[in-house]
Amino acid sequence: MSKKHFIFDDRLAIQAGLQQELKIAQIAKRIGKDRSTVGREIKAHRRLVASSKGNRCVYHAVCAKVPPCRPGCVRGKRQCQSACGGCIENCPDYLEEFCAGYEKAPFVCNSCEKRMRCRLRRMLYDAKYAQEQYESLLSESRKGISLTEAELEQINGIVSPLLKQGQSLPAICETHRDELPVSDRTIYSYIDAGLLDARNIDLRQKPRRPERKKAGRYCVWTGNAI
């Protein structure tokens, strides 16, 4: 496979780099990947982790409601809104607040200084979880595919380099018909599922024929348009 594919060691290096507060470009250089590829990997396999530091509602600071579970509760009013968690299940106006930092590099809270005391859910990148999620997705994509890893590698070795050179998939399949165990339609599905190095962007665009202009109607006697 090409350098676009991540192995578990790559994901461990990404997690370590995030913990060391390295920039995505620095992590990418360390593992020999493109920084945009590393950024997509982080966003694709990050996950929200619950925090027990307080109420995550956007109205927590101004809320004056008395929840039905308040009578008889040993907690005071301040603890009620921070430690109980009953508002999440019982309040119809509950609206969870999320950190705006999720949407900018490095897209996770691994190296955030406020992570351990933040009341919001943390967005984390974990190498083991990312690898398991990737393998699960790959397994689901391959359901119904009666190919061995060697056959898939053979298809990838033939098709991907030629697609990247600008050849069309039908032409490749026709030339290498005896070497490819599946049809071009099946290979399209493999590309969509991300099982090959080639991507949809590598496929040649189908040529579009210009629209034919409709001929006008003419009078057979005068030759003028009607």
Fold and architecture overview:
The chain is mostly helical and 226 residues long. It folds into 3 domains: 8-50 and 105-130; 57-95, no CATH class; 145-202. The protein contains 9 helices and 2 strands, in the order H-H-H-E-H-H-E-H-H-H-H. The protein has helices spanning 8-19, 24-31, 35-45, 77-84, 86-90, 127-141, 149-164, 169-175, 184-192, and strands at residues 47-49, 122-124. The protein has a two-stranded antiparallel sheet with strand order 1-2. The longest helix is centred in the last third of the chain and has 16 residues, at 149-164. Mean pLDDT is 79; it is low at 206-212.
How many distinct beta strands?
A: 2
Mean pLDDT: 79
Distance between the termini: 64 Å
Task: Tell me, briefly, the overall form.
Answer: elongated
Reading the helices and strands in chain order gives HHHEHHEHHHH
Give me the number of helical elements: 9
Oligomer status: single chain
If strands are numbered along the chain, what order do they take across the biggest sheet? 1-2
Which regions have little confidence, pLDDT < 50, spanning 5+ residues?
Answer: 206-212
Kindly give the count of domains: 3
Q: Characterize the biggest β-sheet.
A: 2 strands, antiparallel
Helix content: 40-55%
Proportion of residues in β-strands: under 5%
Computed CA radius of gyration, to the nearest angstrom? 28 Å
